[in-house]
Amino acid sequence: MASPPLLASPRVRFEPVWFHQTLLDGSWCPESADPSVELPVMLPILQEARGPVSRLLLSAAGWSARPHQVVVGGRTISVGYCSDLSPSLMIVRCAGGDSFSLRVAPGPIPAQRAGS
Fold first, then answer.
1. Which InterPro entries match (predicted)?
2. Regarding predicted confidence, which is higher, 77 or 96?
3. To 5 degrees, how large is the angle CA 81–CA 47–CA 94?
């Protein structure tokens, strides 16, 4: 199986973000709906900022694939999908027991087809 293409630069920002009256720890703007492409690029940034990540919780909606594990830097990170989690949120659990939330902003809008 071929490795997924790597994205140029992940769009992750760590700073407080207000989202529907909830204060989150930052935001992430994935460029596609495929976590197997997006997560390997974004996870090193999360781990650098907050320490080793052990599990991610994503919404069950809005993703084109649902990998249950992602390997980054020789570490396997578990990925879960929750039907009651908003597609606009991601929960990150760290190996040390901490957790934090990121707003997941929609990726780029697909180009309209001619005549649409």
1. DUF5994
2. 77
3. 55
